[in-house]
Structure to design on (395 residues):
């Protein structure tokens, strides 16, 4: 008997034979090398048997010289199954396209809801979202993840303190907390304005109170700059002194900067790979080339896939591989000195108030030793040195 799996793959045909001399003709076919099996006769004398599909043309050629008639009842096996599938392909293709369409529409942004923002702030948020590519009709897969959207909105829009970003189905929900300006509550107790450090007065803006110092005067820490007592000396009237007193202060900074520094930088070359993640299984979709970079860094961005508002256990991942190369930065003394000065400026800006500014720089010492520049520098800074000091009766 023929192997059923082999004949299923190559295809087989059920043949019906009637007429005189059928037995002799079938025996002749078998002796000629044709594969014939499951031969049986019914009560009417009709013979049925199977033959392989590749031998069908040989049977037709031999049947021309026979006295009996042959009829092909049905074809079985993979070739005939494939033909039937192609003949009736419209229905399964329609079902497949329906699910693909639903899957596509489930990953489209159909709504953006913003709560907690006034109309002006909401307009700014929608404009910024448009710049980020998040509008009605955009795909979630090609948009930033909610945490990145939250960070960018907080950085770019000044009058919001916090914004919560959540993707529910096909709608983005934004919960906004706006900044509120505190009410200016005037303190009830009178006060002076005193110096918080040694300085030389540069300029003054006194709104209330009596100035006790003048421009270019040196003041000590704790010295009264603007008095909160006005009127007659015998019976002064205490008030709340208000104003700004700007003075020149001094800071000393010591920094070191190497002449030779090994660095790793990005060359600008990159390649991308795309995957579908099914649990722990990762199926590559695009980007099958091997990584040719000797050194590289990898950034992976995972995006969830939704179907009818439900998150599927499938993720669409984009992997970006960027080439890194090692370089040696070699600086001369002048270049290293400029780099050290810039480092000292950055260090100073972390210590002084935000509204202060650097007025002068005086290099006290610079030398090269052990492959690095050592720098000692004095900065003259212009800053507001006035702080409040309450007036205590009896002082």
């Amino acid at each position: 008997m023929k192997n059923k799996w082999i004949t299923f793959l190559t295809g087989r045909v059920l043949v019906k034979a009637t007429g005189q001399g059928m037995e002799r003709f079938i025996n002749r076919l078998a002796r000629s090398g044709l594969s014939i099996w499951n031969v049986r006769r019914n009560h009417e004398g009709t013979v049925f048997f199977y033959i392989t599909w590749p031998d069908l043309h040989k049977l037709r050629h031999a049947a021309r010289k026979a006295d009996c008639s042959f009829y092909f009842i049905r074809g079985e096996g993979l070739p005939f199954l494939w033909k039937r599938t192609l003949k009736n392909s419209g229905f399964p293709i329609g079902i497949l396209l329906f699910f693909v369409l639903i899957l596509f529409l489930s990953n489209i942004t159909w709504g953006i809801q913003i709560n907690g923002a006034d109309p002006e702030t909401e307009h700014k948020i929608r404009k910024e979202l448009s710049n980020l590519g998040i509008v009605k009709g955009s795909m979630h897969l090609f948009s930033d993840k909610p945490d990145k959207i939250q960070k960018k909105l907080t950085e770019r829009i000044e009058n919001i303190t916090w914004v919560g970003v959540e993707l529910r189905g096909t709608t983005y929900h934004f919960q906004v907390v706006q900044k509120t300006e505190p009410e200016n509550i005037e303190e009830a107790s009178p006060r002076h304005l005193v110096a918080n450090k040694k300085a030389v007065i540069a300029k003054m803006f006194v709104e209330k109170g009596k100035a006790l110092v003048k421009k270019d005067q040196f003041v000590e820490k704790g010295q009264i700059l603007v008095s909160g007592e006005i009127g007659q000396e015998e019976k002064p009237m205490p008030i709340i002194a208000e104003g700004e007193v700007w003075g020149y202060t001094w800071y000393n900074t010591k920094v070191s900067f190497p002449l030779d520094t090994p660095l790793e930088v990005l060359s600008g070359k990159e390649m991308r790979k795309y995957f579908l993640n099914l649990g722990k299984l990762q199926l590559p979709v695009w980007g099958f080339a091997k990584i040719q970079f000797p050194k590289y860094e990898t950034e992976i961005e995972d995006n969830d896939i939704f179907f009818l508002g439900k998150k599927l256990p499938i993720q669409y991942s984009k992997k970006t591989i960027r080439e890194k190369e090692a370089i040696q930065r070699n600086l001369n003394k002048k270049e290293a000195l400029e780099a050290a000065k810039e480092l000292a400026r950055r260090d100073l800006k972390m210590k002084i108030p935000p509204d202060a500014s650097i007025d002068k720089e005086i290099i006290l010492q610079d030398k090269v030793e052990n492959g690095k520049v050592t720098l000692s520098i004095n900065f003259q800074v212009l800053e507001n040195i006035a702080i409040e000091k309450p007036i205590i009766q009896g002082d």
Summary: The chain has four domains: 4-83, 111-178, 189-259+331-395, 264-328. DSSP finds eight helices and 22 strands in the chain. The chain has a mean pLDDT of 84.
